[in-house]
Amino acid sequence: MVTGDNLRTAKAIALECGILSTSDEATEPTIIEGRAFRELSEKEREQVAKLVTVMGRSSPNDKLLLVQALRKGGEVVAVTGDGTNDAPALHEADIGLSMGIQGTEVAKESSDIIILDDNFASVVKVVRWGRSVYANIQKFIQFQLTVNVAALVINVVAAVSSGDVPLNAVQLLWVNLIMDTLGALALATEPPTDHLMHRTPVGRREPLVTNIMWRNIFIQALYQVIVLLVLNFWGRSILHLNHGNRAHAVEVKNTMIFNAFVLCQIFNEFNARKPDEINVFSGVSKNYLFMGIVGMTLVLQIIIIEFLGKFTTTVQLSWKQWLITVGIGIVSWPLAVVGKLIPVPKTPLGNYFTKQLQRCRRPARQNCS
Question: What are the pLDDT digits (tens) for 166-183?
Fold first, then answer.
């Protein structure tokens, strides 16, 4: 909070608003005068800026210096203001929010977002929906990468080893429809939750695919690849299909691989809803679109297997074979719970590869010189 009031008034307002928890926090540099902040050197301002919670007796230039110091320190800065004097800070900030009713025209022109009702609580709604959109994009990317990695590895390994692929072109088109269209609709329409507001803000240089997402993708894709490749190479003996016609046995095996793969994606769609939470079913009953899409996907999959065999090169499955494929798919739920107990490093994975590349380039440059 940056204000022109004296420190006592600023402290009282900050305590009432919850910006300061207790009076014991009201010590420098948590609460500071604009003049004291202004007299600091540039490096000292960068250090103190991250600790400042309340600034009293401040001028418009002090607010601008605070914004510049925070941005130099790598922070993403949002500023609210309504006066002409706030224009430089609003313009300098990453996100400037001005008041629609009391705000001056200069402040509105310098800002990025105008709060039409002058209600500061509207900022919370803006942040809530912004985080929701960002989180939904991450959910869809996690779901999409899992499907792509698993399908690619299964078909490549099978083609290289035996010359035959278990998932044909029509089946992969249906999988892509689940992933790109229905999956996007189901995951991108998740409403915002209170859990999002407890997250720390996303940094300026943070990757879109986080370490938590990579962990979830690796666990689910690895499980699907292992189980479906086992079915591909030893499915006939495991499912006792060696006694009948060999061609029919191969068709049954490939149909089960296709069905199990699709069911894995349907069950994994629930996991993708909550990448960092154990309970993936919280709030699912309120999202009617998600439930409708999952239900429609399941019904269409049953129709494809049971009635569209000529189109998709599949055969009808018995109820026991359906139970086996459903069991393979449903294992992804407890697997996701176990996976989320595995801690991940805070440093993005991309940073490790960048450091290794830099180390490899240094000897090459030395040799060239």
Answer: 888 899 998 888 777 888
